[in-house]
Each structure stands twice: as C-alpha cells, then as structure tokens.
Amino acid sequence: xxxxxxxxxxxxxxxxxxxxxxxxxxxxxxxxxxxxxx
Amino acid sequence: xxxxxxxxxxxxxxxxxxxxxxxxxxxxxxxxxxxxxxxxxxxxxxxxxxxxxxxxxxxxxxxxxxxxxxxxxxxxxxxxxxxxxxxxxxxxxxxxxxxxxxxxxxxxxxxxxxxxxxxxxxxxxxxxxxxxxxxxxxxxxxxxxxxxxxxxxxxxxxxxxxxxxxxxxxxxxxxxxxxxxxxxxxxxxxxxxxxxxxxxxxxxxxxxxxxxxxxxxxxxxxxxxxxxxxxxxxxxxxxxxxxxxxxxxxxxxxxxxxxxxxxxxxxxxxxxxxxxxxxxxxxxxxxxxxxxxxxxxxxxxxxxxxxxxxxxxxxxxxxxxxxxxxxxxxxxxxxxxxxxxxxxxxxxxxxxxxxxxxxxxxxxxxxxxxxxxxxxxxxxxxxxxxxxxxxxxxxxxxxxxxxxxxx
Lengths: 38, 407
Prior knowledge:
The complex is a heterodimer. Chain A has one helix spanning 3-37. By secondary structure, chain A is mostly helical. Chain B is 70% helix and 2% strand. Chain B has helices at residues 2-7, 9-12, 19-40, 46-61, 89-98, 102-109, 113-124, 129-133, 135-142, 147-158, 163-170, 177-187, 192-217, 220-223, 237-254, 259-273, 277-302, 305-308, 312-341, 360-372, 379-405, and strands at 64-67, 75-78. A two-stranded antiparallel ribbon of chain B has the order 1-2. Classes of the chains: A mainly alpha, B mainly alpha. At the A-B interface, helix 1 of A face helix 9, helix 10, helix 11, helix 15 and helix 21 of B.
C-alpha cells in the first residue's frame, strides 16, 4: 500500500467512524425520548 | 575469576551476550530506576509507572543461562519471569510450570482479558451525566480528537511498516491503553510489546506534556472561560442503563471484533448505575486496581534488551509521539470550533478531553483552565467529551481491526 492509498484508507475509516458516532448520537436522543415518556 | 562469576550467573550473563545487548541491559536497568523515581514523584502516572519501573529493573538484572524449554539439552539466556515467545502447546505447559508470571501472561495478557478488566473498572467509575445530557457537543469534540489515529496510519506506512502494523501503531492516537493493547494483540503480535510500552509511557507523560501544548495553542483569555452559563443536566440511572445496553448491543452488532471491550465498558457502567455496591467496590478496588498493577508490572517485565535494540523501536517512538500530538492538536481545534459556535461560552480546552485517556485529559483541561482563571471549574464539562472519546476510540479501533484484517 502506498502512502496516498494509506491516507485514503485512513480517511475512509475516519469517515466510517463519524457515521457510527452519528448513530450513537441518534441512539442517545432516542433512548432519552423513550425513558422520558416512560 | 570465572569460578567467582559462576556463582553469580546474572553477572556472568553480561559476557555471554552480544555487547550491544549488554549495554542495552544496563541502560534499561537505569531507565527502570528513572521511571520508578518519576512515578513515585508523580511526574509520571504512578499507578502504571511504579510497577513498570520495578519490572524493567529486575527483569533486566535477572538474566542468566538456563535450559531451553523447547530442547532442555540446550541452554539459552532467559529469566524466571516469563517467556512471551512460546508457541507449541507443550512449551506452554512447560512454561506455566517454570516462569512465575507465565500464568498471568498466558491467561489474561495475551488474549486481551486484562484490557477488558481495565475497561470494566473504568466503566464502573465513569460519570455519564454530561455526556448523555450533551451528546452532540461531547461527540462533536471527540471526533477531531482522533486526528492522530487518522494521520498516523499513512505516516507509519511511509516509514515502512506493514498495513497491520501501521493500523496497530495508529491506534496509539486513540490515547487509550487497553485499546492499544487489544489492537496490537490482534494485528501486530510481533510489535505488541514495544507498541504497548511506548503507548503507556506516552500516556503517562500526557498529564505533564499536554499543558505545554495547550499553552502554546490557546491564549490565556480563552483558557479561562468559566462555562458558568452551561447547565449540567441530571440524567436518571434508568436512562444511563438503557443507553448502555442499547449502545453496547448496537456497537457489538456493527463491530463484533471489539465486542469484548464494549461489553466490559458498558457492564461496568450498568453495575455503577444499578447501585450494586458490592460489585462496584469489586470492579473498582479489586478488578481495576489489580489489573492496572499487573498491567504495569508485566509490561515492565516484557521490556528486555532485545526489544530495545530492535531498529523499529526508534520509529515507534517517533510515531507514538506524532499520534498523541496530532490527537491533542485535533482536540483543541475541535474546542476552538465549539467555542466559536457557542459565541465564547464553551472553553476550548474541553476539546483536548476528547482525546480519551480517562480521566487524565479531562483533569489536564481543568487544571489549565483553573490556572488561567480561578473561577473556571470545567472538570464536569470536560468529562462529557472524555467519555465520548472512549467510545469513538473503540469505534475507530474496531473499524481499523475489521478493515485491515480483510485486506
């Protein structure tokens, strides 16, 4: 793997991390709504 | 002279090894003393550094010519501590009966259990209020604080490491000891010892090193923002338990490779929020304390002269520094953005807490803010990005392991 490919690979991983982090945020909001209603 | 030296095989062993190894051994004994001293003086994190310093000193002193387990007719230089290079089941059984630390190494270290025990203990002492009360801010600050995890990977590739080794090195940027341990065991067992040792030494230096980075990048006026206008919302135990079980399940579904770490952390959180005091005391006082002691001691015992003379060690020292430096810079940049969006209500220093390394970076942010303005008490706010940092670190580590293993 070349350095530029490695950079793109790491950027891909970083972006995937951001997407999953966004999912976590949605989960916190959803759980918050659910427990407040409960 | 020879008959005199034969009485003391430890001293004799200096003449039985290559000269560079003998010199490295003497340097390491000195390094062990230095780390122990700095740990005792609180310059480095004492919980890890004191047992590590003792381990480094004694393992490098106690080397002698002993029977080779693989072939008892032959002799090799070794210690009575442990042998991390055993391969076959027979050698494993023999090693368990010879080396006093081998049972702990084989049953808790080489399978990552010790990292999980540390995570369970951390979960049991973690306060989630600010994180769950302000998830957007906390997670937004944790993402840029992974800059080192992102940029160290191409740097390591440029320095000639393989893809798997580079991924294991990049995880140093997550600034989370158990995470580094876990990923290097899965991805680069050959570099597991040097990566873990460098990572833990740097993580101990974070407490005294990051304040210089903060002073260099953030002016005193911004460091002293008191954040009094931000309220900490009290979150119920039920909400924290629901969050832990849902998030743990979803993360394990998405990234099964890191499920042991997720389950350990969230089990710790659930134990704390369930208020089962006996379990809380066990997880904190017994599990976390015991795991930290053996982690430090075993890492010290693994740092023998042959690892230091490895030519890759210098590259690892550079990359470990780069990873934590870049993560720190990324965290502060995220803090600046948060400060700008909130029109100066948020102290940018809480960004560096997103680097993870619970709770050291949060304490560093608070210490620097408090030094700039006595009214600034930002520790509770910094704990939000700090916890978010643990979660994003685990996510990035898991993605690295998953993607690199299929390459």
